[in-house]
Amino acid sequence: MDTPLVETPAWQALARHRQAMDGVHMRDLFAADPERFDKYSLKLGTLLLDYSKNRLTDETLPLLLDFARARDLEGWREAMFAGSPINLTEGRAVLHTALRQPKGATVLVDGRNVVPDVHAVLDRMGAFATAVRDGEWRGWTGQPITDIVNIGIGGSDLGPVMVTQALTPYHHPHLQAHFVSNVDGTHIAEVLKKVDAETTLFIIASKTFTTQETLANAHTARDWLLAQGAPAEAVAKHFVAVSTNAKEVAAFGIDTDNMFGFWDWVGGRYSLWSAIGLPIMLMVGPDRFAELLAGAHAMDEHFRTAPLAANMPVLMGLIGLWYVNFWDAQSYAVLPYDQYLARLPAYLQQADMESNGKGVDRDGRPVDYSTGPALFGEPGTNGQHAFYQLIHQGTPLIPADFLAPIETQNPVGRHHTLLLANFLAQTEALLLGKTEDEARAELAGQGLDGEELEALVPHKVFTGNRPTNTLLFQKLDPHTLGTLIALYEHKIFVQGILWNLNSFDQWGVELGKQLAKAILPELEGGARRGHDCSTAGLIRVVREGLR
Ligand SMILES: O=P(O)(O)OC[C@H]1O[C@](O)(CO)[C@@H](O)[C@@H]1O
């Protein structure tokens, strides 16, 4: 058996280095090195990563990079790009990168070049999106489409929602996008209140086309359309499907001519670049969608070819792992200072936590080290007025990524300057903190003294030394957004490899699905089955009510 990860020389060297860093404060590292920003920042196109505000000395990165090499990160990276079946538990290749390859490239899966297949679907999507956008695709009464309702969940929802919102300034002026994911009937009911059956297009997005929530919502949407007076033939004009499962699409009643396919080598949470991105393309048009893909491809090329020491996803992955495994950080914040990126944290929750929220390694052995942290975040200054207290003064260490555009899409008065001032102030505050002496002087300056002053001092101290990455970009355009998302995808890949996980399966979501299927008949009046007494008691209360 291989040496356990935590006993490998590279891990042990990091553990020793971590001990030697006790008492090192980033404030002192900055004071000692005026070049630190230049040394620890990296630019790709119009995206800058400043990782200088991390607990890194000149020794840290070389040790982290040694660890990455010892785990053969470069070999695994090559295997992913080459289409090897690195998703072992499902026997699949992991090739979302093939979805953003330019026409003419070659990516072989089982000896077949899949790039022409990718572009054939993109071309079909483009023709369809153009017909809808130009008003040529019409509903059953001959009216052009005004509203698009995407029905999907998880990877068939979060990416399209996040990107569609992020690219709001590029939307078609006469189209509205809506997203229904939750099986809670409230979700679809509220959307259906807003749309007109004659001018609404439903996209049923499901890789498997067996997902309970999506099928329930899809059936409700179709029943609603017919209840609005549409004839059965209208379904063909108002429903399209995005899936890998033509059989189930046909069984639902959608003509497979109205289906946009993708492939089992596209993981759900990595699928927004595929036909799952259809609502994005409808809203921003095929050209902007191509820019999104090109932005992701630029990051793919960077990740694939840049030396590890100058490779954004590698550095972000290693720095994240440094905190999880050597500083006991169990959570991680993503803080976009751009209202259009409001759903980025939710999107990354699935991308990161469904990928690396694993407790056994690739060989099925329980791990004895921490893996993926809990991820959370909120846009801009909203987070500051909610949970930043914990990040600044709480007991857990919460590494955070701060993201902002230099240029706003909405230059309203001084708003953007105010936003950026806050953005910059937060990472500075987390780095420097406020010492007791500084707190004391500040309170004295406010006219306090004696016991009253001393009683307040501990509450006013900020330890600082709290790590952040800053991601600054010129403007949130489709290309930049593609680059940013691919950065996080590859960062997640890096960490999964280093933790020896399969980042591309998600068995952890299955048990709840199985038990829900078993409980459903009980809630519908069927015979009760064996449960723990809490679940049995709750089922009884649900059935009997609390009145
Ligand atoms: O696209 P589908 O097959 O409906 O699956 C939706 C989501 O369900 C999951 O399989 C589990 O929640 C996700 O990985 C996936 O994104």
UniProtKB/TrEMBL annotation:
This protein's GO CC annotations: cytosol
Main location: cytoplasm
Active-site residues, as the UniProt record annotates them: E354, H385, K513
Source organism superkingdom: Bacteria
Pathway where it operates: Carbohydrate biosynthesis; gluconeogenesis; Carbohydrate degradation; glycolysis; D-glyceraldehyde 3-phosphate and glycerone phosphate from D-glucose: step 2/4
UniProt keyword NAD present: no
Top EC class, one word: isomerase
Catalytic activity: alpha-D-glucose 6-phosphate = beta-D-fructose 6-phosphate
EC numbers, comma separated: 5.3.1.9
Gene Ontology MF annotations: carbohydrate derivative binding; glucose-6-phosphate isomerase activity; monosaccharide binding
Localisation: Cytoplasm
GO biological process: gluconeogenesis; glucose 6-phosphate metabolic process; glycolytic process
Keywords: Cytoplasm, Gluconeogenesis, Glycolysis, Isomerase
UniProt keyword Iron-sulfur, yes or no: no
InterPro entries named in the record: G6P_Isomerase, G6P_Isomerase_C, Phosphoglucose_isomerase_CS, SIS_dom_sf, SIS_PGI_1, SIS_PGI_2
Family: Belongs to the GPI family.
HAMAP family, per the entry: G6P_isomerase
Function summary: Catalyzes the reversible isomerization of glucose-6-phosphate to fructose-6-phosphate.
Name this polypeptide is given: Glucose-6-phosphate isomerase
Organism of origin: Nitrospirillum viridazoti CBAmc
